[in-house]
Amino acid sequence: MPSKEYYRKLKKEAHDLYVREGMTCKEISTRINVSERSVSSWINENDALWKKSVRHLLFHRKSRVTT
Questions:
Q1: What is the DSSP letter of 20?
Q2: Which of 14, 32, 34, 45 makes the best surface tag, with the fewest CB within 10 Å?
Q3: Which domain of life is it from (predicted)?
């Protein structure tokens, strides 16, 4: 059985792919070999914190371009 550390690393990789690379849930699940349901759960936990991170990152990228 994989350790908690293993799952923590998978989740971190999924986070980076979602937030920084803009990959979809399906793309991430295929890339790191976990279920779409797991990735979706990670994206939506903690009041959809990953989605907020994406919006924050996009806002700051956009503001850099316009200034």
A1: T
A2: 45
A3: Bacteria
Q: How far apart are CA 11 and CA 32, in angstroms?
A: 9
What is the mean pLDDT of the segment spanning 14-42? 94
Higher pLDDT, 13 or 43: 13
CB contact at 8 A, 14 and 42: yes
pLDDT reading at 66 higher than 90 = no
Instruction: Give the number of other Cβ atoms within 10 Å of residue 27's Cβ.
Output: 15
How many domains, in total, are found in the chain? Answer: 1
Q: Measured over all CA atoms, what is the biggest interatomic distance in the chain, rounded to whole angstroms? A: 50
Tokens encoding 31: 């890339």
Range of the domain at 25: 4-66
